[in-house]
Amino acid sequence: MGSTEARVAVVTGAGSGIGRAVARRLLADGWSVALAGRREDALGETASTAEGTGPGSALVVPCDVTRQDDVERLFAHVLREFGRVDVLFNNAGTFGPSGDVGEIDVAGWESTVAVNLTGSFLCAGAAFRAMKAQEPQGGRIINNGSISAHTPRPRSVAYTTTKHAITGLTKSIELDGRPYGITAGQIDIGNTRTELIDTLGVGEGALQADGSRRVEPTFAVEEAAKAVVFMASLPAEASVGSLLITASGMPFVGRG
């Protein structure tokens, strides 16, 4: 791309939390960013509160990542507007039902898999095809995993299983993308301050493996966004395959 052209990123789940923080930072750094998510009003708020300093612009595209037609329309819209896709931040996700494997129902399991895994697969596939076809070939897919891709919280079987699966998706994309200059990396984030953390009770006392509850430390979502943008901004010759970032002192190492 020429020096006056903005790099192009697609961010899913851009209406809140980590997705919103990443989209804002990319826009501030001069990227052109497609903001994808279910709530158009929330996406518009993300776009309107970002301050850009370069040639990039925001594109709001309402999209349900569990629907293949929506995902295909998203990437077709991005290609019409910006001409290419340099980075996908595969971020949309849900914690899903709380319970052990004997307690959660099939509907709760399937809805979690649909968003966290099938949605990531659909977006990665559409991005991969776009990156493979564009000139010059190549691009980067960054999947938002979780520290639950390493070890679970209690009563999180659906969420934890999907996040373990994201690791397999990331490694497969990285391997299959090599002939086309497509790289893949995964960021696993622990206890950044978002709406999701509020649902886990981290600030009041999150359930621990021994049955107790403990107030856990958190860190600013903007710091997680900086890490994602670092991964996104590397030159094509370098790639971060896996990055783990957590709140200092949180019960992750030694959990259980």
TrEMBL record:
Species whose genome carries this gene: Sinomonas cellulolyticus
Keyword Oxidoreductase: yes
Protein's name in the database: SDR family oxidoreductase
Family that this chain belongs to: Belongs to the short-chain dehydrogenases/reductases (SDR) family.
Pfam families noted in UniProt: adh_short (PF00106)
Keywords: Oxidoreductase
Gene3D superfamilies: NAD(P)-binding Rossmann-like Domain
InterPro entries: NAD(P)-bd_dom_sf, SDR_fam
